[in-house]
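We emphasize that the prediction below concerns an isolated chain of 79 residues; any contacts that depend on oligomerization or on bound cofactors are therefore not represented. The input was used exactly as deposited, without trimming of termini.
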Amino acid sequence: MMKNSAIVKLMSRLPDKITLEVVEACFVLAFLEKNGGNKRKTCREIKISERKMRYRIRIWEDEGYHIPQYERVYNRKNR
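Result of the prediction step, given as a token string:
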């Protein structure tokens, strides 16, 4: 894990207040990191819809958490 990642920031909130939202965010962000930011693969692994993932990420960003945006790599053959 990176020192400035959203997971570390969320985990710092745990001693004071553990909420389902914080646990959910840590879980989802851990899988995003594991999958190199691949949201589709993460959604399949944790069994949530891509729409729900986008909604949750937007909420976390609005709360001030930095969610890393991964650059999409395109195959030149598909252009």
